[in-house]
Amino acid sequence: MSVLKLRIYPDPVLKQKARKITIIDGSVRKLAQDMLDTMYKSDGVGLAAPQVGVSKRIMVIDVSSEEEPAKPIVFINPEILEKDGEMIGQEGCLSFPDVFFEVKRASKVVVRFQNLKGQTLKLTAEGNLLSRAIQHEIDHLDGKLFIEKATNELKRDLEMTKAGLLDGDAEEISKKLGDDEGLTLTVPSKEAVTS
Ligand SMILES: [Zn+2]
After folding, report:
1. Contact 98, 8 (CB under 8 A)
2. Fewer CB within 10 Å: N-end or C-end of the chain?
3. Where do transmembrane segments lie in this chain (predicted)?
C-alpha cells in the first residue's frame, strides 16, 4: 500500500491534458492500487491520475458508503459516449481541500473504458453520485477543473478565499452574496462528492 502525495491547486499538472495509456502493465496496476489507497485515505469518492502528478488517462471511483463493502472501479482511457439531462449538486475536489460548491453536470452519462485486464467495458450512470464522479474525473484527465463549472461564481470565490486558494476578502464576497446565503456556505452537504 502506498499513499501518494496529492497535488493541490494551482499545481500546473492539474491543467494538463493527460496522455492515453497504451500498455496496461504492472506499473499501471500499481498506480491504480496506489491511487485507490490515496483516495480511501483522503475520504474521496474519486481520484484522477493528474491529482497525484501522473499525466495519464486513468481514474478510480468508489461511491459505496462506509457501511458497504468497497466497490472500486478503475477506468483506463475513459470516453463519454452519451450525455443527457442535467443535475445540480455540491462537489468537492481532493485538489481543493475544504472547498465545496454547486456544479451543474449532465444527469446521465454512458462511458466506455478499459479495465486493468485490458477489457473494454461500457457503463451507464444516471442522476447519482457515480454519474457526477465520472464527469468530474474525466474533466481532470482533460485538464479541466470544477471551478470552471460553478453555478454561482461568487459562492465559489468565497469558498476558495476561505480555503486560502484565492486572494480576496471573504467578508466582502459574503456581503455581495447576501448575509443569509453567506452563512450557509460553511456546511457542505452530506451528498457532496469529493473527488
Ligand atoms: Zn477533483
Report:
1. no
2. N
3. none
What spacing in Å lies between the alpha carbon of 80 and ligand 1's midpoint? Answer: 17
Rounded to an integer, what distance in angstroms lies between the CA atom of residue 188 and that of residue 166? 19
* 136 known ligand binder: yes
Is residue 38 marked as binding? no
Q: How far is CA 77 from CA 39, 58, 69, 104, 180, in A?
A: 19, 6, 26, 23, 43
Radius of gyration of the chain (CA): 17
138 membership: H or E segment, kind and range: helix 129-141
Q: What separation in Å is there between the alpha carbon of 93 and the centre of ligand 1?
A: 4
The residues assigned a catalytic role are: 137
* Measured distance CA(3)–CA(33) in Å, rounded: 9
Tens digit of each residue's pLDDT (9 = 90 or more) over 87-132: 999 999 999 999 999 999 999 999 999 999 999 999 999 999 999 9
Residues 157-185: pLDDT tens digits?
999 999 999 999 999 998 888 865 645 55
72 CB burial (10 A radius; 0-12, 13-18, 19+): middle
Nearest alpha carbon to residue 116 among 22, 25, 19, 3: 25
Q: Which pTM was predicted? A: 0.92
